[in-house]
Amino acid sequence: MAILGSIIKTAIDLRDAIVSEKSQVESQKEVLKSLLETAKDTAFGKYYGFSKILEAEDIQKEFSDKVPYFDYHQMEEKWWVKTQEGLEDITWPGVPTYFARSSGTTGKTSKKIPVTDEMVETIRNAGIKQVGALANFDVQSDFFEKEIMMLGSSTNLEEQDQFLEGEISGISASNIPFWFRGYYKPGEEIAQMEDWDEKVETIAKRAREWDIGALSGIPSWMELMMKKVIEYHDAKNIHEIWPNLQAYTSGGVAFQPYEKSFNQLLAHPIIIIDTYLASEGFLAFQNRPETTAMKLVTDNGIYFEFVPFNPDYINDDGSLSQDAPALTLEEVEVDTDYVLIISTVSGAWRYLIGDTIAFTDVEKAEIKITGRTKFFLNVVGSQLSVNKMEAAMRELEEKFDIKIPEFTLAAVKIDDEFYHHWYLGTDTEISDKKLAEALDNALKEANKNYAVARSKALKGVKVSTVSLEVFQEWSAKNKKKGGQVKMEKVMGEDKFAEWEEFVKQLGV
Question: Which fold would CATH assign to domain 379-505?
Answer without folding.
Answer: GMP Synthetase; Chain A, domain 3 (3.30.300)
